[in-house]
């Protein structure tokens, strides 16, 4: 080794030792660029493993999201599978209500798991995938740059090695040429020319050795400078960027771990609310109340049967008369025989032995819609005939609620039609008011039919569901018939109305529609007694007055009937007309806008109010929507 080589080697070794000492005394600023300057392959392997681990974590969160979705779907399938039917009669029990509430909370719980799955997929999986892709691209770029720098340094080292070999070769040749010159100069047999030739060859070889020496020194300087730049600045910078990349990967995993936990923690209060809802549903279960509901549902209202008397057959065998008080029929129980429904009682042990019979294969049975009483008769035959008293009353109440709801709907429809008609009358450009007349007539007919049925079911409820003749409800609905059936002023019975007598004699099972119930609306043109079709109306007042010995009130009927005292109705409130109204049918009175009127009968749900003028006893019906009631008295 030459002196120059020893000097450069010692200089590089001293720099490495000094850098090692500096790094040893500054452990707090340890970095990959200084500490791992010669660990390129290990750094590349470590960063690759880190990115693979980040991909693995992303796949874990994606699979976790799929698990949450499948769990939520399974919960919803359970809720759908075990959901109770909407028409289930057992929904009145608190245990069934609590069960439905629990299923609803389970459905909400499934929704929270769907939220967790959605947020994990949107917030964690997508970010992890994007971050891993970015880090992979950056790592590839840095490793490519480090490889380029390393190749550059290796090329420089190869050039240095080549220059060194040339220098060594030229040095050997120069030394040999010098040795040949000295031999030729010492040999006396050689000519002067030969000696000069060896001298010039030696000088040439010395010059080539000097040139190669300078080239070697130049390449060595370049190599040292490049190597110093490579290990002191270029490669540490790349390693530091790789270190920052790996730290970003670790921090990304840390942040997404926390984010996944925060996503689940965010839905925990709602999950706790669902669980609390299940607990509240369990607290609503009332065993005693359910037991009472069972009693209310299945109670027949009958008394238990008495003891079966002993039947002595010896007297009949001996030809003697049976003793007094002995029973001859053991199969007729007093409780069943005295029941208002006969032998077929739904809900009893003997109910399965009896079946309804409607003629011979139903040939002579009429259609359900053949008469206005078809639905009522169908209800009486199919729904009430086989029910015990308690269940019969319950069924009648349900029917009354259903009819009341339908009447309210039809009334709301009629109010809308009346308002539309008023708008058309005030502004003919919007439409023809006569187009609403047919709809109003149909609506009025439906209302009349519903009110008639409502009154029949109310009478049926008043009689505790006992079956009565078809002509009886309608005869009682008639004001003249009810008035004639009570005692008059002196308490003497009044003769029956001719129309009621004819209906009872010739109608059979088909009842005639009473005159004052055929239309509840003054617009029908059949009178102004629509209030008599509802309970608590004038017919009930007349019945109570007749029962107390007072003369009943009449609307005016046939001239052949007795005259009754007309007692005016009391004033309920005062009102003023919002719009003008032209009376176009019997029973209604006209009014002007702003006119003051006295209210003597409130709207019974048909959209008409009965009023009286201030200055006279003229009475009649006006649309309720055209009035503004100021005060009640």
Describe the structure.
- The protein is mostly helical and 633 residues long.
- It has helices at 3-25, 32-35, 40-81, 94-186, 192-283, 287-298, 314-317, 334-337, 374-384, 389-426, 437-462, 471-477, 479-484, 498-506, 538-547, and strands at 573-577, 596-601, 608-613, 619-623, 627-632.
- It has a five-stranded antiparallel β-sheet, with no helix packed on it.
- Helix 4 (94-186) runs antiparallel to helix 5 and helix 10 runs antiparallel to helix 11 (437-462).
- The radius of gyration is 56 Å and the shape is elongated.
- The N and C termini lie far apart (132 Å).
- Mean pLDDT is 74; it is low at 23-28, 325-372 and 467-566.
Radius of gyration: 56 Å
Number of strands: 5
Shape field: elongated
Tell me the major beta sheet. 5 strands, antiparallel
The overall pLDDT average reads 74
Query: What is the number of helices?
Result: 15
H and E string = HHHHHHHHHHHHHHHEEEEE
What topology, given as strand order, has the largest sheet?
4-3-2-1-5
Report the uncertain regions.
Answer: 23-28, 325-372, 467-566
Q: Provide the β-strand percentage band.
A: under 5%
* SSE-based structural type: mainly alpha
The termini sit apart by: 132 Å
Percentage of residues in helical conformation: 55-70%
């Amino acid at each position: 080794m030459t002196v120059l080589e020893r000097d450069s080697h010692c200089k590089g070794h001293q720099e490495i030792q000094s850098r090692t000492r500096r790094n040893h005394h500054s452990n707090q600023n340890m970095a990959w660029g200084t500490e791992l300057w010669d660990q390129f392959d290990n750094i590349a392997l470590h960063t690759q493993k880190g990115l693979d681990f980040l991909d693995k974590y992303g796949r874990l969160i994606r699979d976790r999201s799929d698990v949450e979705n499948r769990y939520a779907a399974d919960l919803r399938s359970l809720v759908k599978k075990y959901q109770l039917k909407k028409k289930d009669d057992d929904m009145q029990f608190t245990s069934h209500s609590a069960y439905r509430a629990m299923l609803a909370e389970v459905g909400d719980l499934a929704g929270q798991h769907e939220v967790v799955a959605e947020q994990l997929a949107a917030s964690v999986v997508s970010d992890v995938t994007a971050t891993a892709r970015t880090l992979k691209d950056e790592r590839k770029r840095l490793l490519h740059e480090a490889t380029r720098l390393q190749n550059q340094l290796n090329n420089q080292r190869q050039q240095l090695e080549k220059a060194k070999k040339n220098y060594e070769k030229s040095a050997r040749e120069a030394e040999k040429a010098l040795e040949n010159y000295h031999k030729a100069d010492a040999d006396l047999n050689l000519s002067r020319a030969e000696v000069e030739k060896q001298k010039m060859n030696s000088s040439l070889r010395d010059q080539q050795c000097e040139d190669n020496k300078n080239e070697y020194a130049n390449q060595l300087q370049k190599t040292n400078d490049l190597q110093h730049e490579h290990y002191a600045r270029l490669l540490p910078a790349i390693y530091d960027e790789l270190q920052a990349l790996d730290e970003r990967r670790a921090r990304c995993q840390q942040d997404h771990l926390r984010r996944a936990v925060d996503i689940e923690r965010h839905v925990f209060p709602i999950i706790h609310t669902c669980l609390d809802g299940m607990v509240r549903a369990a607290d609503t279960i009332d065993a005693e109340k359910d037991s009472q509901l069972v009693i209310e549902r299945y109670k027949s209202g009958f008394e238990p049967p008495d003891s079966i008397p002993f039947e002595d057959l010896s007297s009949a065998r001996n030809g003697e008369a049976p003793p007094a008080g002995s029973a001859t029929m053991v199969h007729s129980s007093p409780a069943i025989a005295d029941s208002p429904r006969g032998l077929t009682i739904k809900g009893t042990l003997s109910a399965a032995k009896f079946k309804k019979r409607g003629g011979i294969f139903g040939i002579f049975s009429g259609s359900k819609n053949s008469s206005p009483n078809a639905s009522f008769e169908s209800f009486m035959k199919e729904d009430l005939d086989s029910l015990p008293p308690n269940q019969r009353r319950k069924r009648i109440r349900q029917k009354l609620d259903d009819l009341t709801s339908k009447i309210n709907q039809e009334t709301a429809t009629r109010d809308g039609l009346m308002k539309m008609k008023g708008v058309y009358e005030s502004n003919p450009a919007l439409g023809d008011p006569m187009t609403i007349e047919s709809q109003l007539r149909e609506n009025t007919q439906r209302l009349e039919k519903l009110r008639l049925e409502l009154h029949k079911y109310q009478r049926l409820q008043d009689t505790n569901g006992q079956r009565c003749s078809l002509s009886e409800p309608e005869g009682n609905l008639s004001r003249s018939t009810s008035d004639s059936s009570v005692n008059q002023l002196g308490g003497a019975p009044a003769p029956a109305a001719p129309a009621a007598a004819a209906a009872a004699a010739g109608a059979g099972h088909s009842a005639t529609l009473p005159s004052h119930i055929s239309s509840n609306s003054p617009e029908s043109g059949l009178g102004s007694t629509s209030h008599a079709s509802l309970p608590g109306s004038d017919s009930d007042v007349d019945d109570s007055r007749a029962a107390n010995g007072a003369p009943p009130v009449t609307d005016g009927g046939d001239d052949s009937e007795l005259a009754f005292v007309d007692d005016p109705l009391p004033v309920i409130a005062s009102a003023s007309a919002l719009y003008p109204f032209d009376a176009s049918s019997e029973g209604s009175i006209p009014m002007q806008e702003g006119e003051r009127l006295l209210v003597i009968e409130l709207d019974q749900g048909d959209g008409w109010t009965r009023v009286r003028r201030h200055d006279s006893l003229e009475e009649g019906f006006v649309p309720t929507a055209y009035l503004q009631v100021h005060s009640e008295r």
